[in-house]
């Protein structure tokens, strides 16, 4: 039996590289996937691929930074059988490659403000329905980690640490209602680096070089692990991070 058969899963940022990989993995495991994001054309393209592979996917134009839009979309999904999984994978707008001493305040705080705002809104919207049904999983992406010495990542790590604090609190508050909260940590996914990124090779070599396996996590790896963690086979996992960094991040 498929891991997520009969489950409804919302993937915010479902048109992006990570979001589409996760959505495809969810659908492959039997979930009905609800792709949400601002670019409907990109979402529709992902949904078409999922359907062509025999999966179920619906799309909706949703600004995951807009409180009303997030709440209304969650209500619509919940009305179709509840919300079992919520995973926010929208872009945080982080600026990388600039040393902190040369970075503007706006660029530094952008990923922090965006990550905290959007994950709060989407997690809250899903949790309100999950607590009623006394089941569900809220997934986070990123996780706390050490700074990347070879490259300046701006406020990105600050954003990840803030999300970990949010995840810990949510896990504590939602646990008694049967709702889980888990973070996936990768240490970086070279496949997501833009092809025209000037320092792409430097960053890719840095990511691979810090692993114990000599390679970094792939998009397929992220999707497969996310599907497992979202499933009932991982029902004892909450208030924790899942390390899929190939040994780059040592707990």
UniProtKB/TrEMBL annotation:
Gene3D superfamilies, per the entry: NAD(P)-binding Rossmann-like Domain (3.40.50.720)
Entry protein name: SDR family oxidoreductase
UniProt key word Oxidoreductase: yes
PANTHER family in the cross-refs: 5-KETO-D-GLUCONATE 5-REDUCTASE, ALCOHOL DEHYDROGENASE, PUTATIVE (AFU_ORTHOLOGUE AFUA_3G03445)-RELATED
Keywords: Oxidoreductase
InterPro entries in the record: NAD(P)-bd_dom_sf, SDR_fam
Signal peptide: none
Family the UniProt entry places it in: Belongs to the short-chain dehydrogenases/reductases (SDR) family.
């Amino acid at each position: 039996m498929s891991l997520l058969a009969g489950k409804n899963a919302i993937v915010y940022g479902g048109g992006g590289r990570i979001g589409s990989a996760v959505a495809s993995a969810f659908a492959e495991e039997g979930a009905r996937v609800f792709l949400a994001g601002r670019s409907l054309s990109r979402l529709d393209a992902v949904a078409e691929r999922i359907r062509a592979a025999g999966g179920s996917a619906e799309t909706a134009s949703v600004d995951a930074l807009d409180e009303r839009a997030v709440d209304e979309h969650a209500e619509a999904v919940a009305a179709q059988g509840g919300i079992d999984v919520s995973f926010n994978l929208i872009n945080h707008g982080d600026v990388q490659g600039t040393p902190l001493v040369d970075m503007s305040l706006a660029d530094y705080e952008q990923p922090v403000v965006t990550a905290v705002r959007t994950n709060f809104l989407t997690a809250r919207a899903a949790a309100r329905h999950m607590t009623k049904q006394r089941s569900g999983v809220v997934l986070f992406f990123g996780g706390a980690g050490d700074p990347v010495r070879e490259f300046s990542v701006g406020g990105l790590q600050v954003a990840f640490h803030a999300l970990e604090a949010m995840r810990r609190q949510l896990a504590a508050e939602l646990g008694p209602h049967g709702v889980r909260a888990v973070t996936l940590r990768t240490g970086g996914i070279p496949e997501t680096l833009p092809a025209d990124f000037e320092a792409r090779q430097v960053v890719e070599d840095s990511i691979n070089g810090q692993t114990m396996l000599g390679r970094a996590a792939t998009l397929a790896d992220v999707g497969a692990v996310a599907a497992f963690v979202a499933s009932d086979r991982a029902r004892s996992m909450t208030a924790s991070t899942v390390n899929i960094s190939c040994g780059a991040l040592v707990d």
